[in-house]
Amino acid sequence: MTSGKEQLVLRNCSRERNISMRTIDISEAIKVLISETVKEIFRTAVDVPDPESPPEMIDAEYAVGCFPFSRILRDAPNRIAEQVASKIIPPGWLKTVTAYGPYLNFKLDESFIFKTVLGEAIEQGDRFGYAAHGSGQTILVEYSSPNTNKPLHLGHVRNNVLGMAVINLLRAAGHCVIPASIMNDRGIHICKAMVAYRRFGDDRTPESMGIKGDHFVGEMYVTFDRAAKNDSLLLDEARMMLRLWEEGDDPTIELWRTMNKWVIDGFEKTYRRLGSVFELVQHESQTYLLGKDVVQDGLEKGLFFRKDDNSVWVDLSTEGLDEKALLRSDGTSLYITQDLGVAVERFRNLKIDRVVYIVGSEQIYHFNVLFAIFRKLGYAWANQCAHLSYGMVYLPEGKMKSREGNVVDADDLIDEMQSLSLAVMEESHMQIELDNRAAVAESIGLGAIKYYILKFNPQKDIHFDPRNSLSFEGATGAYIQYCHARIRSVLRKTEWTPDKGWNPSDLIQQEELDTVRLMLLLPSVIRQSARDLNPARLANHLWDLAKSFNVFYTKHRILDAGSDALTRARLGLALGVANALKSGLELLGIDAVEAM
RNA sequence: GCGCCCGUAGCUCAGCUGGAUAGAGCAACGGACUUCUAAUCCGUAGGUCGUAGGUUCGAAUCCUACCGGGCGUACCA
Question: What is the pTM of this model?
Answer without folding.
Answer: 0.94
